[in-house]
């Protein structure tokens, strides 16, 4: 973060880490708190953060997206047991000014973040309503991992809605995403299979029937009133499935007339011998 003397307040994401009790600090875990702060700072751009050390813990302050601050909180959380480490996340305005040992940061937002880290709760990561609102604007899906968990009054006697990070919700969200991706693939595969089956059924239903002709001595073939040629040389008819009227004519002889109901792919033999004409 950069600042100039007398600069106006700037919005920032604030992550506060502290030991939950004095006893925890006395039993040699203070070094672990420092390790947690270092782990949190690893993914936080050094040019966009200030690390503030206080008597009760560390604060990381910077103009980074709330999702980066939440990721930092989770890295810190992995360093210490849940009943030892308190983590507070807040989004608010801070004042910055140059100091003898670097940039100085102050403001009520810092106090609110510390109050969140000090609040007794079953979950180590507590976030303010302001933080969740900012996270929802930037990463709506991640905001779903913060669920409402009551209310808190900070040192300035200001009331804040509390939200806790729910690891189970995060896991469920990832699982739903994977299941939806897998379900989408299954739907695509299923659609492809269903389409292939439907196409095969459609093609099978429209497969033409074949009629093999053996007409002697010859005859003109009509199908549904339309001439299809003379047999021979015509020896085979390909007809679509369904009802048809087949007629074979030979001179003045009695025509051969058949009404047929052809099935898809059916093969049929049509044999007939016309009698010779009567003598003159």
Summarize the topology.
Blueprint: E1 10-19, H1 22-41, E2 50-54, E3 57-62, H2 66-77, E4 85-99, E5 102-106, H3 108-118, E6 125-128, H4 129-138, H5 140-143, E7 146-153, E8 159-165, H6 167-205, E9 209-216, E10 219-223, E11 226-231, E12 236-239, E13 242-249, E14 256-262, E15 267-273
Parallel strand pairs: 4-6, 9-15
Antiparallel strand pairs: 1-3, 1-4, 2-3, 4-5, 6-8, 7-8, 9-12, 10-11, 10-13, 13-14
Helix pairs in contact: 1-2
Extended strand count: 15
Structural class category: alpha+beta
Describe the biggest sheet?
Answer: 8 strands, mixed
Supply Rg.
42 Å
Assembly context of the chains: single chain
Instruction: Give, in order, the helices and strands.
Output: EHEEHEEHEHHEEHEEEEEEE
Apparent shape: rod-shaped
| Average pLDDT metric | 77
Strand content: 35-45%
Percent of residues in helices comes to 25-40%
**Distance between the amino and carboxyl termini:** 121 Å
**Poorly predicted ranges:** none
Helix run count: 6
Report on this structure.
- The protein has helices at 22-41, 66-77, 108-118, 129-138, 140-143, 167-205; strands at residues 10-19, 50-54, 57-62, 85-99, 102-106, 125-128, 146-153, 159-165, 209-216, 219-223, 226-231, 236-239, 242-249, 256-262, 267-273.
- The chain is an alpha+beta fold and 280 residues long.
- The strands form three sheets. Strands 1, 2, 3, 4, 5, 6, 7 and 8 form an eight-stranded mixed β-sheet that branches. A four-stranded antiparallel β-sheet has the order 11-10-13-14, with no helix packed on it. Strands 12-9-15 form a three-stranded mixed β-sheet, with no helix packed on it.
- A hairpin with a 6-residue loop joins β13 (242-249) and β14 (256-262).
- The longest helix has 39 residues, at 167-205.
């Amino acid at each position: 973060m950069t600042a100039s003397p007398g600069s106006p307040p700037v919005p920032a994401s604030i992550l506060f880490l502290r030991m939950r009790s004095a006893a925890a600090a006395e039993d040699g875990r203070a070094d672990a708190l420092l390790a947690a702060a270092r782990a949190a700072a690893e993914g936080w751009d050094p040019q966009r953060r200030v690390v503030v050390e206080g008597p009760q813990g560390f604060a990381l302050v910077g103009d980074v997206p709330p999702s980066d601050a939440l990721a930092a909180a989770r890295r810190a959380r992995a360093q210490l047991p849940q009943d030892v480490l308190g983590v507070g996340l807040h989004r608010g305005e801070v004042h910055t000014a140059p100091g003898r040992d670097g940039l100085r940061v102050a403001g009520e937002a810092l106090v609110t973040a510390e109050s969140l880290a000090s609040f007794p709760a079953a979950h180590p990561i507590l976030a303010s309503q302001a933080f969740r609102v900012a996270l929802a604007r930037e990463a709506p899906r991640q905001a779903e991992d913060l669920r409402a968990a009551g209310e808190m009054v900070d040192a300035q006697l200001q009331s804040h809605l509390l939200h806790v990070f729910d690891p189970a919700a995060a896991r469920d969200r990832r699982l739903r995403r994977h299941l939806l991706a897998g379900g989408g693939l299954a739907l695509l595969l299923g659609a492809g299979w269903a389409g292939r089956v439907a196409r095969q059924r459609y093609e099978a239903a429209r497969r033409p029937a074949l009629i093999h002709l053996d007409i002697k001595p010859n005859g003109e073939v009509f199908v549904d009133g339309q001439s299809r040629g003379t047999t021979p040389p015509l020896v085979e008819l390909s007809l679509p499935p369904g009802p048809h009227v087949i007629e074979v004519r030979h001179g003045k002889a009695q025509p051969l007339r058949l009404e047929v109901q052809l099935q898809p792919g059916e093969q049929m033999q049509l044999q007939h011998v016309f009698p010779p004409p009567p003598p003159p």
